[in-house]
């Protein structure tokens, strides 16, 4: 209980920290593209579209897990039902055999007892035998009744889970319809943004502003971090970590981005909805939408090391959550106005971006 209370306090503290960071980001964002109000409105709409998609995608992810759990329960209950039905049949046959035996031998022996009352020793043995047989029958009847009761219970549970499965499938269909509508809305927003053409100079300014926004957020997060668990960083894990998602490398660390700007991470192409896994254990210190990066998760690994996972479809973890190596933290998407699906991934040490290839293999 003390551990749960401590975790809850830690989550509340981290939530308060995130709120401070979000306020700082909001203040900075209000100064970005202030003169281009039309584009600012569209970017705000893009954020709303991304968050709407994230909400439905998270619901679909939860529903899919519930479907798997329900199907597994149905499978277990089906096996149990078959086993109980077979057990019931065996008990019926055994009970019928005992009853037939008792009937045929009972008539004969009782008749003898009536005609040979002088043989007290034989009478006693016969009574003992009947008592033994009667107890055996009672035991079998009780077992049979227990099997019937258990079978009724299992059958009811099986029916309940089948109905639950149908309900989940209907819910999933509604969620997918809603997701499709939200995606259509985002496509229209992106099309409108595309009409607000930017010159190379404006694109460079936008990317610089986005990077500055991220750097400011990370700097503030670093100042607020207070380790709740002992994290050992990534310094001893070079070439030992797995990539957060399986996919084709679309952009490499250090390659040209726009003008003199270079990629500070890598872009990995992967299908929408594929799970994004954390590269190492740590604490989630940011889990929200950020201009230029869409739905973003940042994990603190200790000793000044952080990993960033951007442009997700939805986020599966909240600020303050402790995550283990390989644990799903998000689903691949293209939030933040990206024209292609994929995961943007960075590793940073003391605020500076480092080449992920030095750590991941």
UniProtKB/TrEMBL annotation:
Sequence ranges assigned to domain M23ase beta-sheet core in this UniProt record: 263-356
Gene3D superfamilies the record matches: 6.10.250.3150, Glucose Permease (Domain IIA)
InterPro entries hit by this protein: Cell_wall_metabolism_enzyme, Dup_hybrid_motif, M23ase_b-sheet_dom
Residue runs in coiled coils: 53-87
Pfam families, per database record: Peptidase_M23 (PF01551)
Protein origin, superkingdom: Bacteria
Transmembrane domains' residue ranges: none
Keywords on record: Coiled coil
Leader sequence segment: none
Residue ranges of the region described as Disordered: 166-185
The name this protein goes by in its record: Peptidoglycan DD-metalloendopeptidase family protein
Organism whose genome encodes this protein: Colwellia maritima
Lineage, opening ranks: Bacteria, Pseudomonadati, Pseudomonadota, Gammaproteobacteria, Alteromonadales
């Amino acid at each position: 209980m003390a551990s749960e209370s401590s975790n809850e306090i830690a989550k509340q503290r981290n939530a308060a920290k995130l709120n401070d960071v979000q306020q700082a980001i909001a203040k900075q964002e209000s100064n970005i593209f202030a003169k281009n109000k039309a584009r600012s409105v569209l970017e705000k709409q893009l954020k709303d579209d991304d968050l709407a998609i994230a909400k439905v995608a998270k619901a679909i992810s939860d529903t899919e897990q519930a479907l798997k759990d329900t199907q597994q329960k149905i499978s277990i209950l089906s096996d149990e039902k078959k086993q109980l039905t077979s057990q019931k049949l065996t008990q019926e046959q055994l009970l019928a055999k005992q009853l037939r035996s008792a009937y045929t031998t009972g008539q004969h022996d009782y008749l003898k007892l009536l005609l040979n009352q002088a043989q007290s020793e034989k009478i006693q043995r016969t009574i003992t035998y009947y008592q033994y047989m009667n107890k055996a029958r009672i035991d079998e009847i009780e077992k049979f009744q227990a099997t019937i009761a258990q079978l009724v219970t299992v059958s009811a549970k099986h029916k309940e889970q089948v109905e639950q499965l149908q309900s989940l499938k209907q819910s999933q269909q509604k969620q997918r319809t809603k997701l499709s509508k939200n995606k259509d809305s985002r496509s229209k927003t992106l099309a409108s943004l595309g009409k607000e053409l930017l010159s190379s100079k404006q694109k460079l300014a936008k990317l610089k502003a986005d990077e500055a926004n991220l750097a400011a957020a990370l700097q503030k997060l670093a100042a607020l971090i207070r380790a709740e668990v002992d994290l050992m960083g990534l310094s001893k894990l070079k070439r030992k970590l797995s990539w957060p998602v399986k996919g084709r490398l679309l952009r490499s660390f250090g390659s040209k981005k726009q003008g003199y700007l270079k990629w500070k991470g890598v872009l990995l192409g992967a299908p929408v909805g594929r799970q994004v896994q954390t590269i190492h254990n740590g604490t989630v210190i940011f889990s929200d939408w950020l201009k230029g990066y869409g739905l973003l998760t940042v994990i603190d690994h200790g000793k000044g090391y952080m990993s960033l996972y951007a442009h997700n479809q939805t986020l599966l973890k909240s600020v303050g959550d402790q995550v283990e190596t390989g644990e799903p933290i998000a689903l691949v998407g293209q939030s933040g106005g990206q024209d292609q699906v994929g995961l943007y991934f960075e590793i940073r040490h003391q605020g500076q971006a480092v080449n992920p290839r030095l750590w991941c293999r």
